[in-house]
Design goal:
metal-binding; Rossmann fold; cytoplasm; alpha/beta; about 170 residues; two-stranded parallel ribbon; Heptose_bisP_phosphatase; 3-stranded parallel sheet; hydrolase activity; 7 helices
Length: about 170
Amino acid sequence: MDKGYVTSWKEFKWLPGAIEGIRALNERGWLVFIITNQACVGKNILEREVLDDIHERMQRDLQRNQASISQIYVCPHRPEAHCACRKPRPGMLLQAAREHRLRLHDCYVVGDSLTDMITAKEVKSYSILVRSGLGQRDEQQVRSLELADHYCETVDEAVHHIIQKEEAVV
Ligand SMILES: [Zn+2]
């Protein structure tokens, strides 16, 4: 989830409940991915090596807490590049689906922006808008376009919703 650009490990902070949420999903056999626009790389605000280092440190944090993210997909391009991967285009989701044999209509996309919700709908994933960060700003628009399948306050709530929904099916 983007809260402006994070350009150093010092600025990075897990959202409350995020690590626990990832672990809870892992424990139930779910793979978790991060799909992130990082135009700051294309704009030379952030070096790719620094971004990769932040991601490695995130992975180590997770490992220490018995949680894991299968892969972090990054679009490093500037918006003007009109690449296929920058959200709201679904390139990164399609790539994840290919590489990890995912059925996207059985996947959940948890995000905090209108862009994330459009991306989810492009591939018919179940979309959850978290109201933290940009979520509050974009909620009105997301609602009027009916782009989210579910709304919640925190990542933690999103994870609980997913687990409840899945357990109701089984
Ligand atoms: Zn891209």
